[in-house]
Structures are given as C-alpha cells and as structure tokens.
Amino acid sequence: MSVQALYQQKRMSAADAIRVVKNGDTIVVPTAVGEPPSLLTALSEARRDFRDVTVSQILPVRKYAYFDPETVENIRHTAYFFSGASRQGGQEGWIDFIPAYFSELPSLISNNLSPADVVFTMVSPMDEHGYFSLSLAPDYTMAAIAKARAVVLEVNPNVPFANGNCHIHISQVAALTESNDPILEVGLPKIGPVQQAIGKYVADMIPDGATLQIGYGGIPDAVVMQLTHKHNLGIHTEMVGDGIMSLVEAGVVDNSKKNYGRGKILATFALGSKKLYQFMDRNPALEMHPVDFTNDPYLAGQNDNLHAINATMQIDFMGQCGSESLGSAPYSGTGGQADFVRAANRSNGGKSFIVLPSTAKDDTISRIVPTLSTGTHVTTSKNDINYVVTEFGVAQLRGKTAKQRTEALIGIAHPDFRGELREAAKKMKLL
Asked: Which residue of 107, 200, 328, 395 has the smallest Cβ count within 10 Å?
C-alpha cells in the first residue's frame, strides 16, 4: 500500500482518533506548542468516558477542560514541568509531578520507569516518503513513540518540517487527524532595567566564538539583545526561540566554531512566533533532536566555550538554587538547568551563569538568602554552581570555600539587605 493510501486509511476526526486510548493508559504529549490542541480538546470533551487515564507533559500552553479537579478519576495530568495551565492543580494537589532532569526523561520512558502507552503529538504534513516531522518538540516524545502501543498525530500545515532526529513514518501511526489553526505564538518576556543590567554583565563575559545555551525568560532574552556585536557564535540549546533567530539574522550566529555539531543549531523544542516556525522549515542550519541528545552534559560539553544562561528564583549562601518551587509549592520544574550547568562545567573554557534579580515583591524580599526557604526544591546543587549574576554584579563560586561564597553572594545582593545577610552569616559562622 502506498504511503498516501496509508494516510487516507488512518485519517479520521479527532473524536474518533482518541478512541485508541484505553482505561488505565498514560498518554505522552510533547513540550509546549508541540501539544496537539484538536486531540486534547476532543479528549477533554470525552473525558467522562474514560477511567484512570494520565496525560504526561512538560509545559502545557493551553488550559484544556481536562484540567479539572472534578474529573481526575477520569483523566488526570502528571507534570514533568509545571506551567500556568497546570500550576494551580500542582499547588492544590490534584496534579502530581515527576521530578527528573529533562535530559533523562527519554531514559525513564525507555526503561519503563515512566509509562508511555499512547502518544498524542502535533506534526508537519507528510513528505513524499511518508515521514512527518515533530519539529516543535521531539524532546522525550521520540522515546515515547518507540515504546507506545499507539501513536496519534495531529497534522497541521503550519508546523515546519525540520531536519534532525524528529521524524515518524506513516507506518508507525495508529490514527491521525488534521487541523490548520495557527501554531500558538509565545511573545518575549518583559525586559526592564534590572534585566538589562544583568544581561550586560553576562554578555560582557561571552567571547566571540562561544557556543550558547539560552533558557527562557526576560534575563536570557536581555542577554541575547546585547550580543549583536559578537562574532561566530554557536547554538547548542534545549529551546530555540525568536532571540536565537534574531542573532542568526544579524549574522552573529554561524556555528562555525563549534566542536560538536559544527554548522548546526541544535535544539529539542521551539517556542516563539510564526516567523520562528517559518524560519525552522527545512532550514539546513537547524536540527531538532531528542532531549537526551541536546541536553546530555557529556555531549553538549564537547563544545569548547559553552556558555549556559539560566534563571533561578532563590539562591543560598552555599550556592544551592531553588529554581522550581516557592517553598514546598511547585511552580515550574527541574527542566534542563542542571543539565547545562554541568555541560558548561565540562566544557573547555565554558561558563554557566545563574541569573536572578536581587529582590522580589517590589524589593521587599531578598532572593539571596542564608538558607533556602523551608521545603524549597533544589534544582542546581552547590557543587555545580559557577557564576551567579544579579543587577549588582557577578559572583564566581566554583572552587570557592563556603565563606568565600557567602562573601561573594552578599556582595551582589541588594544593598538594603546586605546588613542583615552579614548578620545571618556571622551567626552561621560563615563570616
């Protein structure tokens, strides 16, 4: 049977396609805009027909009707990483989560530590050879495809066909549905004077020829905005966004100095504008790969001068970073921060930057603290931390003693809090 005939045989409505799901199944869904809205809407509408079904995903970008505490016995969400859509459920306890490094999610799936019975994913149109591209997020989804009983696609002509290890053949598909809605666009975060100040400190420490991993957020984007005078930068990252695209367009990124994946931007998910998604389509300079490739510290660290830029919410005198919870209340997730901190530490000439404003809540709370708030989930350990940057400067911690770290961190805290931080440090015998 031809690939076109197979396509027509498996083509159906979203309401029919979701019927491959059985009670007790776990459905794996890709990161962010890789999620298939028609399939998840149909699943939500029919949720009372199912029992004990789980949807596992990083960073949902829409709050579907199945995010419902009244129907968790029918369909419940399990988070690899919380977003605005899932955070309330996580904090109220009716959404559970799986602590894990982003890079290790594929191995959890392949080793049967995290179930994957069905995959729902958005894909590009099929090419003449019968392949679709999971360009928006191959992440852990490619591992789930290899394990799942059934794979269900939402085919959308607005999804780019990207290169890399992100393709699935029609013969691997149980059912597919079609949609043509625009891919959700996610704008750049707000950048103010604090973010700009932090961004300048980091940008000034990035040399020509560096390879970058850039996380999501106002401060990483502020760094990007201040790199337009650099030369021969490379990209090995988890997320490709509009900031990276703008550096390519400015001629700043050419990937010519990379040791690993030379000439290529490597990423595992995309989040940005329509222009970004069009930029990705059959772009020979871009490859999308599973996250156990992009985020593996050993592989990423083979690039000399790897510079990783990630944000945290709180850091203590030892350098422990609480980047994913507010006390014990979950807020986001581990993600790839620790992956790339370790990759940069392995890299010859590499630097890992943890960035944060010095205060929160209108300057009433210091984000640099003697000890993390009770119950805080530690994202990056004291043994991995290197550069910490606030709007007041840079503290370099790797290789430093506990007392040296404390002194350096107090030095970049907000001046209004330095006195009480020093008093706390004295009581802890750290000054």
From this structure: 328
